Amino acid sequence: MAVLTASRNVSVLVASRTKQFLPREHTKKAPHWGAFFVCALLTLLPFEQVSAQEGTCPRLLGGDYARVAHVYDGDTLKLADGSRIRLLGINTPELGRDGRQDQPFARSAAQWLEVHTQGREVYWVQGSGKQDRYGRMLAHVYLPDGRLVAEGLAEAGLGHVLARGVGRNLESCLFKAEARAKRAGKGVWQQGARQASDIRQGGFALVKGRITRVTRTSSGTYMDLDNHLALFLPVELKAQGASGWRRGQLLQARGWIIDRQRRGQTQSSGRQRWLLKITHLRHLQRL
């Protein structure tokens, strides 16, 4: 609840500084002359100069404005026209469904997004990936103060940064925000990466382990961690400079783990049940 209160205070402060980005119904028709000149000045400044006070990620061009009607969880929201948006650049903990408990900090992430976006006009830019398998639009969303939502969540330690589909102009600032949260031990960074040998279910995870086997195929490279979890590095990522993997190296990886057995895939000798596909080189790190 302390997080929610603090977020509301920040939202009020931000709204008072950046009235020019709010919907018209939130502005007064006859502002005082002082407020008028402040708003006029901010309107003339480039968006990047204004947003630099609140964050470091640049504003992408080619987007549109829309009001947020509903927040589903920490990384999914609905616009007033009914469009569902999945935020690019961040993955927040899952809220519990079907009798399962919330993951740690899932409720805090959802509250953060609700406080900062619901009922407000935001600027959003659709990503190159268009939609995910659930029919949600993949997009970058910016708060009324010009800050990238994914950066704000990462800075608060309420999710893990994802580089796929983000673009180089946003990768660096997002990982820097995550690094600040990690150094401060905020949110999800109160716990370290999970040991690969402890994986017992699918879903998103930050894992670490030692390479116990390397298998190269025409489609890519498989690296077993702790004789329990297989990482798959597609050949296109190897072509981008990923090489030199060998037994004994300690790695950290992030992504979605799938249960091959649950998917009905046959388990041949030495083939690991758990698989994590690397979708971007920034998701794999030598320790």
TrEMBL record:
Q: Which PROSITE patterns match?
A: TNASE_2, TNASE_3
Q: Which UniProt keywords apply?
A: Endonuclease, Hydrolase, Nuclease
A GO molecular-function term, please? hydrolase activity
Could you tell me which residue ranges the TNase-like domain spans?
Answer: 62-191
One family name in Pfam for this protein? SNase
- Report which superkingdom the organism of origin falls in: Bacteria
- Quick check: keyword Nuclease in the entry? yes
Q: Does the keyword Nuclease apply?
A: yes
Q: Known InterPro entries for this protein?
A: SNase_OB-fold_sf, Staphylococal_nuclease_OB-fold, Thermonucl_AS
- The protein's name is Endonuclease YncB, thermonuclease family
Biological source species: Marinobacterium stanieri
